Amino acid sequence: MARSAEQLMTIEGELHGSVASAQLVHFNFPAPIENLMQDNSAYRVDLCLTPRPRNARACYPQRWGAQRFERIGDVFMVPPGEAMLAVSDGRCKQTSIVCKINPPAMQDWFDGDLQWTERSLSAGLDIRERNIHTLLLRLADETRHPGFASEMLVELIAAQIAIELARYCTSSNAAAVERGLSPWRLRKIDERLQEISAPPTLSELAQLCQISVRQLTRGFRLNRGCSIGDYVAENRLAQARQLLATDQSIKSIAYALGFASPSSFCFAFRRATAETPSQFRQRLVQFH
Fold this sequence. Notes:
- It is a single chain.
- The longest helix has 29 residues, at about 150-180.
- Helices cover about 45% and strands about 20% of the residues.
- It has a five-stranded mixed β-sheet, with no helix packed on it. It has a five-stranded antiparallel β-sheet with strand order 2-3-10-5-8.
- The model has no long low-confidence stretch (mean pLDDT about 85).
- The chain has two domains: about 1-180, Sandwich (Jelly Rolls), CATH 2.60.120.10; about 185-285, Arc Repressor Mutant, subunit A, CATH 1.10.10.
- It contains eleven helices and ten strands.
- By secondary structure, the chain is α+β, with helices and mostly antiparallel strands.
């Protein structure tokens, strides 16, 4: 049964600022266990100061398939509102420094909110940026041995961590775009376009692929060599031709494809093919 991290930990020390907090915690994993982590109010950044449990791995069950687990590194991050399920083999004790940062502060420290795509969530399970590692070690030392103005220092370090995380996330997403869209994203797009309905918006396709609209349009062009708008239009035209080859009325075809009226469908079809739907259908009959 999945258990929360709070049920398994004891706190050695903690510091609280107005926008961030730090906890030095000890975890006791009594057996192979499922550890559910979710915090709707903060970014959670975790550095393991001792070896992680054997074969530690994690899944985002609300985002990925239930069977997809990836390795957890020394440093990992869980965005607010995301449920991360961590599993490991065998019993183990570990110590971690956990930094929690309020989302509004993250937005203030850089331009807008981070885009937590499938790629960046995966990259966030094993963050190997030296700057982030060093900042968390400094935070652990301050939490273990508080000094003057420790609360202010927590916020200063958290601000630097936020900036480094933003850079890390941006570079991870950019790397994914440079290689184009992954096969599963292209499959999701094609499956949606096979539906006989109104065409999807860019926002709908981006959400389906768990990336931003900008990443969708750039990545798609790298894969298919055309804009996603042209691809959707060509797919829709192919559907119109297939339906016109049946005995469905032009009116029903127009509404099935999401046009506001039969006349708007006829106008769009003629502009794309230089003939009306009726002329296309007559030519098919003559050909056969």
